[in-house]
Amino acid sequence: DLLIEALASLKTNDRWICWLAGSPGNAQDRKYFEELHATADRLSITSRLRWLGHRTDVPRLLVAADLLCQPNRVPESFGIIFVEALYAEVPVVTSAIGGALEILDDSCGRLIPPEDSHSLGETLRELIEDVVLRRRLGANGPARALALCDPQQQMQRLYVALKDTAFRTRSSRHR
Question: Which residues of 129-142 are buried (b: 16+ CB within 10 A; e: fewer)?
């Protein structure tokens, strides 16, 4: 709903179409989904939204996207979709809470204050209008994703941490 509210502030800008992937999984989700459609109707942006439903081809969607916007209201523990978007050279816009704070920085995306549709709209406006900025953020994404999630780097970090822990444990026993 924050995204739909933010997009309503951009309805006079004809340079965007928003794809919404996902579908309701239970009665509570269905009610929320209906509310989203009603909000889009009320704000007169229904024609600019593409409701894609449940998708299993997220990598394909990311390659076709100009940016990923997921303004969460509650923190995600990690947010694998953000890393997937970075690998795909897609800049990310999300709320400055939870795992997003560890994943994103100004080199590859934008963190907006939680619950702030105005800031979200302004950030989206900037990225929609500034193709050079959007491309630069996207180009920086793979290096950021690799630094966070490269299996070889992570295994090395784990090895060092375990080795250090084992050394400290042995040292404390010999005192």
Answer: eeeeebeebbebbe
HSE-CB for 166 with a 13 A CA cutoff: 6
Query: Which single residue is written with the structure tokens 């076709």?
Result: 64
Amino acid found at 38: A
The single-letter code of the amino acid at 57 is D
Q: What percentage of residues in the chain have a pLDDT greater than 70?
A: 94
**Can you tell me the mean pLDDT for 66-85?**
94
Q: 146-163: buried (b, 16+ CB within 10 Å) or exposed (e) per residue?
A: eebbeeeeeeeeeeeeee
Average the pLDDT over 60-79 and give the result: 94
Cα 59–chain centre separation: 14
CB-based contact 18:1 (threshold 8 Å): no
Measured between alpha carbons, how far is 109 from 97 in angstroms, rounded to an integer? 14
The pLDDT score that the predictor gives to residue 153 is 81
Contact at 8 Å (CB) between 45 and 4?
Answer: yes
CB 95 within 8 A of CB 113: yes
Can you point out the beta strands (E) in 63-154?
A: 68-70, 92-95, 109-112
pTM for the model stands at: 0.86
